[in-house]
Automatic annotation (TrEMBL):
The chain crosses the membrane at residues 20-39, 45-64. GO terms for biological process: transmembrane transport. It comes from the Bacteria. Keywords: Membrane, Transmembrane, Transmembrane helix. Pfam families: Iron_permease. It comes from Sphingopyxis flava. This is Low affinity Fe/Cu permease.
């Protein structure tokens, strides 16, 4: 089920991002607007575009979120592999994306202070000390 959904979501997201899809959407709106005088700007005429855009927007939100989740997870895995491969990298940072926003912000603040300290010659704090400050 996951593989099927991923395949469908990927294809739909790719299709929705194509220039041709945008052109088709604009053409649909132009045809809809041009048909207004013919249909006397009726409630049905308005309902057509309202329903179509609402349904498409609702579905697009799920497709976009799925795509972002998958891309984010893949990027984290790649970054984790880079951290593991570099001798000078601090592997303690692998998996910090699972911390809370507040914890990550504290780590960022501590790292920025650490960088400022290096520039002043104050030395280099370890990741353990940065993380213990939480």
């Amino acid at each position: 089920m996951n593989r099927i959904f991923t395949r469908i979501a990927s294809r739909c997201a790719r299709l929705m991002g194509e220039p041709a899809t945008f052109i088709v959407a604009v053409a649909f709106i132009i045809v809809w607007a041009a048909s207004g005088p013919i249909l006397q700007f009726s409630d049905t005429w308005q309902l057509i575009v309202n329903t179509a855009t609402t349904v498409l927007t609702f579905l697009a939100v799920f497709l976009i979120q799925n795509s972002q989740n998958r891309d984010g997870a893949a990027m984290q895995a790649k970054l984790d592999e880079i951290l593991r491969a570099l001798d000078t990298a601090r592997v303690e940072f692998v998996g910090i994306e699972h911390l809370t926003d507040v914890e990550i912000e504290k780590i960022r603040d501590a790292l920025e202070a650490d960088i400022a300290g290096k520039e002043r010659g104050d030395g280099h704090r370890s990741v353990e000390r940065l993380l213990k400050r939480l």
